[in-house]
Amino acid sequence: MDVVKDVLEKSAKEADKYKSVEVNKLIDIDVGALLAIDSNPLDSKALRSSPNDYLLKLTRDNVQLMYNQIWELPTERIEEAIVVKLPKPKYSLPRAKPVPKPRSLTKWEQFAKAKGIVKKKRTKLTWDDQLKKWIPLYGFKRAAAQKEKDWVLEVPQNANPMEDQFAKKVEAKSERVAKNELQRLHNIAKAKHVKIPRFGLTNPDVSSAKELQAAVTVAKSSTASLGKFQEKLPKEKEARGVGAITPGATRKRKLPPVSGSDEKTQNLNIVETVLNKRPKIDMEKAVARHMNDEQLQRSEEKKGERPKRLRKSHGSSTGGGGRKKPKNSNRPRKGKMAGGRKRR
Amino acid sequence: MVVIQRVVKATTRKGKKVLIKKEPQVNEGPKRALFLQGRRSSDKLRRLTKDLFDIKKPDAQLLNKKNDITIFEDATPVERFCRKFETPLFVMSSHSKKRPDNLVIGRMYNYSLLDMIELHVENIECMREFACQKIVLGTKPSLVFNGPTWEETEELKHLKSLFIDIFHREEVESVRLQGLEHTISFTATPEGKILIRSFNVLMKKSGTRVPRLELEEMGPRIDLTLRRSKLPSEDLMKEALRKPKELKVTKKKNISVDGLGTTHGRIHVGKQEIQKIQTRKMKGLKKTPEEIKMKRAAKRSADNNNVNKIKKQKLG
To answer: How far does Cα A122 stand from its chain's mean position?
Structure first.
């Protein structure tokens, strides 16, 4: 009993040593924003006489109340610091910028979503047997590796030997880049709901004279006879560069040959091309046709052996002979279509 | 990907990052403040601007040159500055004979003016004049608003919102208990004066877990009076206050926890078509065509009997 009394006395003394943390007041506290709003009326006398002391006391009480609430929140320990988890603030402040709108999907993204195609990350480095080292498939240092591989380019079988294969490759790449850029701009236009014509000039009001001339040339040669019979204004010129691409644009007549020997060689060439035309043999087609003929023969022989009743289904032989095997059925695909997947 | 598609893409990676940073985001970081001068400045204003800039660092930008801006007539120069420095808040100080010691606090929404309030600085005592230990740069202060008038007028409500916007730094999820060192109190007296006091919070031992707080005045002591104001229209403010959908908390339906802590869930099963349930086929029990014919004949005769009965009843 004495021990209990002693302990109680001791604790009471200790409590007296420290000042209390209790405040008797009712104020609005938003713990999430560390905000306290005290709507109680102020003491005007104290404000007039000693404002700073009064404000200090008032603020101390309000902050004590707020901290009392903060200390009640769940705490956790992160590397020697005791951290308390604050709730979401109730006081709402205006944003600096509007809420971001979600981006609409591009044409490919929509298709991939519908089909269920998932983006798989390709490994960057692949082993190249030609160079005997690891080269990147995309990104940094890819172009240099490709340049190393292309120190020599094969001329394919059916191509003109005088053609520049390197220039052809560069041109093909620039065409792909231009196509990609066009598709990207189409996607942006679709996302922003801007109407763009499928072909032709997008905005004739701001086009330069060059662009307009190009558009005119392209439009003129978009007829069935490739612009051969389209009328021309007296001083009209074609657009430069466009003429080379559009088939019907060039109207320059080839001048007749100057000397007799040139004319002779020209005419002989024409005669040769006409008379020396040899039929091209498609091996696979020939083999397939031969096999088909053999099969038909065999079936005809068997027909003769079978009874008359079931012969009603077999029609005339011309129907069977006219049947051809389709050309592209089992042809092994090489080169571009080898993987079966279009590389973007 | 939230990046806005651009017709002209950024050429460098650094440029791309800068553009991405400028786009609107779901969670916005701390708002930056721009401190600028008008046609002339006074000694009081210079000291005040320096002190506020020190408090607001590192989310602040201080411009030293004087600008020929009359903000209440034309706010576009300030909008341009705010767009250039990416600061949604601004504090402009100017001094003239007609409006001495003038301070305009305002904020932007989407690079255009949202609201601004003009204040007259009556008295200021700098941080230097208080001899005590200051706080660490960048602490989040706790804000206290004293006085019933803060909720009474529209102007004071907006001013309260502005003060919170400037001083609260940013929204945080957790706070270190030892780091709650700074408190700023805003008092609106019944005469119409606004008194700002800034304190250093000292935590003393108390008998309980919560420490006993003692405040020590350390920061600038500012006395202000209201002058003009330009408040936003209702719908503009409403749009600025809109919260993105991602931040809305979606409640899980049909799940409840009872008093004992057991989680209960409700599953709603649709209506079952008993006639159309697929069961096992027993071919032996299937009716032959003769049996079906007999059944149909029996049914027809039964119907006829019923019809005859009804006829007899009606007649009879």
So the answer is: 15
The confidence band for A317, taking pLDDT boundaries of 50, 70 and 90, is very low
Question: Going by C-beta distance under 8 Å and a sequence separation of 6 or more, which residues neighbour residue A47?
Answer: A54, B189
In angstroms, the first-to-last Cα distance of chain B is: 86
Q: 3-class SS at A315?
A: coil
User: Do B206 and A39 make contact, defined as CB atoms within 8 angstroms?
Assistant: no
Alpha-carbon dihedral angle through residues B222, B225, B229, B233, given to the nearest 10 degrees: 80
CA–CA distances in Å: residue B110 to residues A49, A94, A95, A266: 46, 11, 9, 74
CB atoms A85 and B174 under 8 Å = yes
Dist CA B52 CA B126 (whole Å): 10
Let me know: does A29 contact A35? Beta carbons within 8 Å.
Answer: yes
Residue B265 to residue B134: CA distance in whole angstroms: 55
> pLDDT digit string (tens) for A53-103?
999 999 999 999 999 888 888 888 888 888 999 988 888 899 999 998 888
Q: Which of B213, B222, B238 has the most A C-beta neighbours within 10 Å, making it the best mutation to test the interface with A?
A: B213
DSSP letter string, A64-75? HHHHHHHHTS-E
Q: pTM value?
A: 0.68
3-state secondary structure A125-159: EEEECCCCEEEECCCCCHHHHHHHHCCCCCCCCCC
CB < 8 Å to A41, chain B: 147-148
Question: Please, are residues B180 and B172 in contact by the beta-carbon 8 Å criterion?
Answer: no
**pLDDT tens, B211-265?**
888 999 988 999 999 999 999 999 999 999 988 887 777 788 888 888 898 999 9
Contact B142 A38 (CB under 8 A): no
Of B173, B207, B245, the CB nearest to A15: B207
CA nearest to B156, candidates B72, B231, B240, B235: B231
- A64 in B contact zone (CB under 8 Å): yes
Integer Cα distance of A24 and A27 in angstroms:
10
Do residue B195 and residue A51 have CB atoms under 8 angstroms apart? Answer: yes
Nearest chain A Cα distance for residue B292, angstroms = 38
